[in-house]
Amino acid sequence: MTERDSRLRAQDQLLTRIDEAAERGRLGERRAVHRGVQSQSGSPGCALAAGAVFFGIALALFLAGRTGLAVIPFGLLLVSWISIGFERLTSKRNQSFQLDLYEHGLTAALKNRVHAVRYDGTSVLQNSVRHTGVAGYTEYEYTLTDIEGQQVVLRGRSDGVAQKGRFPHPKEWGDTIQQAVTEAQLPKAIARLKAGESLDFGRLWLTLDAVGSARDTAKWSQIQEIRVFDGFVKIKIAGQWRSLGNTAVTSITVSGIPNFFVFLALAERLRQSGSGTAV
Q: Is the pTM above the cut of 0.85?
């Protein structure tokens, strides 16, 4: 069996496992597919061309008796070869990573395991880190809970650099997941609030009357606005912004709030109604 045949067989087996996981989770119709980040087309060719140039320069310097200077292009040649090998190895590993989005959830093929996640029953933690500089990019990380109660971590980078276990276009699939989870869970959350329950979102809780944490409580009728500043949830009361938690030590970050977009949708409705009667 050739390498191509082996690769096709492995892909067929992966697709079968994905279909089985989707059926177990009753996920419905497939909507989109995101495969692990691959090397950009042309990058190995560029590395090979650069390698040929470095080799030519090094050979010319060596023949001219400039052995010391010849070490520099030889070193650059070595770096280009390592780059080619790394790109190919990463692309090969990422062939087994796949994210499929469905009508009612998703499947994630990660580390030789296929997870099934339902939008109406999962918990989502989102963490985005912006890296500044000339080649600035944003790293995205979403931690979900699958139908078996296991955690699933989905990662991606805005610049699409090939790294093991990363998916391209993380903003696109991340927004889709957050929106789908919110649409699936918001009606049930509203019903629970109307029944008089208190809903927990990590270190935050909310009821029809108020929102709070272990050390801080605010009535919806007091809150003028809710915003996110530098990853922290802030509320505006009497014209002043403050963190939920009231101190720097206990301030609540978006990355620490499960299903943050569900929380935010509920909070905005309750804030606008003032007492929760119109939620």
A: no
